[in-house]
Amino acid sequence: MTDLAPPEPHERGARVELDPVPLAVVRRDGVVLDDVRDLFDEGYAALGRLLGDGTLVPVGPALAIYRGDVTARFDLELGFPVAEAPGARIRAGDLEVVGTTLPAGPALAATHLGAYDDLGDAWARLADTPGASHTNTWIEVYGVDPSSDPDHLRTDLLMPVRD
Fold first, then answer.
1. Overall pTM > 0.85
2. Domain range enclosing 95
């Protein structure tokens, strides 16, 4: 199974193989970057309530999957790996949690250490890896509590690529 929280940081451009890990996510379609902070707050608050009452049991760290052109409109999934993806929609306040899987296949990886505000530059460096042919899917795996000191945040970047 894909290790979404390896103990050591990824070297930029490291090649990894992603397995179809089951996920429970809040999905939002047609979003823009300016909305992401609020969507994260709403989505992870809803997921947190389901984790707190035992409806969902995570088996790995929080993650976000961006699908599409992140400079325009794109789809966003916020969630956690779970032992088994939910088969039916789960209401969480005004939001719904659905089951899905991590995109399977080859990916390039990198680890960003530092503030979330610098993730755009980290993604640009990863996308510039020689020979990278991305699929317009971008995965962020959050290694520490987001309320931590920004200098101590760890985000693993996974960029699925074509063979």
1. yes
2. 14-160
